[in-house]
Amino acid sequence: MNQVLIVLIAANVLISMKGFKDYSFLNRYKFQIGKIRNGEKERMLTSGFLHVDWMHLGFNMYALYLFGDIVANNLGTASFLAIYIGSLLAGSLYSLTYHKNEMNYSAVGASGAVSGIVYSSILIYPNMSLMLFPLPIPIPAYIFGVGYLVYSIYGMKKQLGNVGHSAHLGGAIGGFVITLVLFPQIFSMNQTMVLLLSVPIVLLLLFGKKLKNL
């Protein structure tokens, strides 16, 4: 595994464990609209290293483990870190925009950062096969990518659990854009797949505000 990837996983585990045991620590650094709008902008970053429980943490770290090396090994460590942090902040920014009038809205998790890494890896290998529990058959990565966004939209609409579903979407957008900015040759290599993966993102940006009225 890439050393930076190991450090990120370790940081998520250790900081999340601190939050499991110390609610005041979790409350101080989690994503919360009211606190952020009152000037505590660091929450947009720190919330990405906190999780609500071991299952939430395990799922995000397993996804990061699976896809992180793909990005780091193909694009380089510096680009991997830029995509990870950039996607985390993009997820927080999208959440802040979508929930801007919900002063008590709060969430935690590395979902935004991980979503960006997942989308970046799919841009690199759109036809790779993924075996996802409980499905017994492999599915193409680009189908997983689109499905992941659809589920995140549903989770954001229903506000399922204390998890940043809107951060999934913002993170995926961040990973998609940052990867193409850093490596525009990906577009010339996989034009059709890039355009396909961009469809749900474009539709979300155009019609995302109408989700709350559905």
Q: Would you kindly provide a written description of the structure presented here, covering whatever features stand out?
A:
Strand 3 and strand 4 (about 140) form a beta hairpin. The strands form 2 sheets. A two-stranded antiparallel ribbon has the order 1-2. It has a two-stranded antiparallel sheet with strand order 3-4. By secondary structure, it is mainly alpha-helical. The protein has 11 helices and 4 strands. The model has no long low-confidence stretch (mean pLDDT about 85). The protein is globular and about 45 Å long. Helix 5 (about 55-75) crosses helix 6. It has one domain (about 5-214): Rhomboid-like (Rhomboid-like fold, Up-down Bundle). The N and C termini lie far apart (about 45 Å). About 70% of the residues lie in helices and about 5% in strands.
List keywords for this structure.
214 residues, mainly alpha, Rhomboid-like fold, two-stranded antiparallel ribbon, 11 helices, 4 strands, 71% helix, protease, Rhomboid family intramembrane serine protease, Rhomboid_protease_S54, transmembrane
Topology, element by element:
Elements: H1 3-21, H2 23-29, E1 31-32, H3 33-37, H4 43-46, H5 54-75, H6 77-98, E2 106-107, H7 111-124, E3 129-130, E4 139-140, H8 141-158, H9 165-182, H10 185-189, H11 191-207
Antiparallel strand pairs: 1-2, 3-4
GO molecular function: serine-type endopeptidase activity
Organism: Polaribacter pacificus
Family: Belongs to the peptidase S54 family.
